[in-house]
């Protein structure tokens, strides 16, 4: 079994003075949700997600070895980095990166040897209400692993991706599912071979053709800042009256969806995915303090989808993450007709009529390596 110790960096075989990497990583949408965690970003239950294709963060990491006699940057802090978002300095993102570096230092001690410039941008609007923490942390973790590989070129590709997912998890839990694979499981589950609480693993079975290039149209219902962050929401699962039942249910739903992803049963897929979405929000509504992240238009859209599905039998369903936006999931072979339905009946519920068309993708990519 892989343990945390396996990710502690020990061997520098090559000296690296400076360089640049650029990596991209996509967002992902959970089918069985992660909601509740233990210490050190260990999930309270296993989760599974589709990796997306178009909604990505692209991050360039430039680094120069610190000279012990010269201080680069304005302070002598342990971690030395500048952060640019869409080309401009972004101070309010820095505490999250600082915390990330602190969490991963034990595994990447070389981080204190360099000054970094982290330049990041998203393919989706920052204010869209789409969380960029999963794609952002996954892209940064891939860059850090690119540096680690330069220091130790003998590293295997499997280790590269596994440790990138491990590091990404320490930045944001769901980020570990954005590194590699179309369908990713994170969290120990009895029926998923090699599954781990420490990193995401690719869904081990052959995916049924019904799910190849599955579509996800994201309806942007509310772009406002969330009243309650995911981190606070996860915390509220401690002492939650339904926590244990919910965690047990997630294990059962993961077993069930594993079969569905193998056998292509779309009716069963819809049941599990919609139930998971509503359960996630039910947990929010039943925690103390309680809160609601759905908006009236979220419910309008859900009702429209149910009516449309009843009338047409087209296997379209919804899921939600920790916000008001609605992800509409459907097979590629009904793409045109579902897009027409979205344009005719749902766009009016989106803020400024905005939605994003995405589909299942493959994970992070190394774009520049020099
Ligand atoms: C509702 O991964 O954003 O999207 O680990 O605190 O960074 P942190 O939380 P985060 O939580 C995501 C929760 C979710 C469900 C999911 O993606 O599985």
Tell me the overall shape: globular
- The CATH topology of the largest domain is given as Ribosomal Protein S5, domain 2
Mean pLDDT: 95
Which runs of at least 5 residues are low in confidence (pLDDT < 50)?
A: none
Broad structural category? alpha+beta
Distance between the termini: 34 Å
Kindly state the number of beta strands. 14
Gyration radius over CA: 21 Å
Name of the CATH architecture of the largest domain: 2-Layer Sandwich
Small molecules bound: ligand DP6
Main beta-sheet annotation: 8 strands, mixed
How many helices does DSSP assign? 8
Number of domains: 2
What percent of residues adopt helix (DSSP H or I)? Answer: 25-40%
Oligomer status = single chain
**What top-tier CATH class of the largest domain fits best?**
Alpha Beta
Strand content: 15-25%
Helix and strand run: EEEEEEHEHHEEEHHHHEEHEE
Write the layout of secondary structure elements.
Elements: E1 18-32, E2 37-38, E3 42-43, E4 47-65, E5 80-85, E6 88-89, H1 94-104, E7 114-122, H2 133-151, H3 157-171, E8 183-186, E9 200-202, E10 215-219, H4 230-235, H5 243-263, H6 266-285, H7 296-312, E11 317-319, E12 326-330, H8 335-346, E13 355-359, E14 365-369
Parallel strand pairs: 5-7
Antiparallel strand pairs: 1-4, 1-14, 2-3, 4-7, 4-8, 5-6, 8-9, 10-12, 10-13, 11-12
Helix pairs in contact: 2-3, 5-6
The protein binds ligand DP6.
Ligand DP6 binds at residues 30, 33-35, 41, 47, 131, 133, 172-174, 230-231, 234, 280, 321-322.
């Amino acid at each position: 079994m892989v343990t945390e110790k396996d990710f502690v960096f020990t061997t520098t075989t090559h000296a690296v003075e400076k360089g640049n990497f650029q990596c991209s990583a996509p967002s992902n949408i959970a089918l069985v949700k992660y909601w509740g965690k233990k210490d050190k970003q260990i999930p309270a239950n296993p989760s599974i997600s589709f990796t997306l294709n178009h909604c990505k963060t692209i991050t360039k990491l430039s680094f120069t070895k610190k000279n012990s006699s010269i201080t680069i940057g304005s302070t002598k802090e342990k971690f030395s980095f500048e952060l640019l978002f869409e080309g401009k300095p972004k101070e309010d993102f820095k505490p999250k990166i600082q915390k990330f570096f602190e969490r991963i230092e034990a595994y990447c001690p070389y981080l204190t040897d360099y000054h970094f410039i982290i330049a990041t941008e998203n393919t989706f609007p920052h204010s869209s209400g789409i969380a960029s923490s999963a794609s952002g942390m996954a892209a940064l973790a891939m860059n850090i692993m690119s540096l680690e590989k330069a220091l130790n070129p003998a590293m295997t590709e499997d280790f590269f991706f596994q440790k990138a997912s491990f590091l990404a998890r320490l930045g944001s839990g769901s980020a570990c599912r954005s590194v590699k694979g179309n369908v990713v499981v994170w969290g120990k589950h009895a029926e998923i071979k090699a599954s781990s609480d420490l990193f995401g693993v690719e869904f081990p079975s052959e995916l049924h053709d019904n799910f190849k290039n599955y579509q996800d149209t994201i309806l942007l219902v509310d772009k406002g800042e969330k009243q309650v962050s995911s981190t606070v929401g996860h915390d509220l699962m401690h002492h939650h009256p339904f926590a244990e039942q919910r965690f047990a249910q997630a294990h059962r739903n993961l077993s069930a969806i594993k079969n569905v992803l193998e056998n292509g049963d779309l009716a069963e897929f819809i049941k599990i995915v919609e139930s998971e979405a509503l359960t996630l929000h039910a947990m929010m509504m039943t925690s103390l303090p309680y809160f609601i992240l759905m908006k009236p238009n979220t419910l309008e859209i859900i009702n429209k989808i149910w009516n449309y599905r009843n009338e047409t039998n087209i296997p379209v369903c919804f899921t939600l993450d920790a916000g008001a936006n609605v992800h509409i999931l459907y097979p590629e072979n009904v793409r045109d007709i579902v897009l027409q339905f979205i344009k005719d009946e749902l766009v009016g519920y989106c803020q400024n009529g905005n939605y994003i068309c995405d589909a299942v993708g493959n994970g992070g990519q190394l774009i520049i390596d020099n």
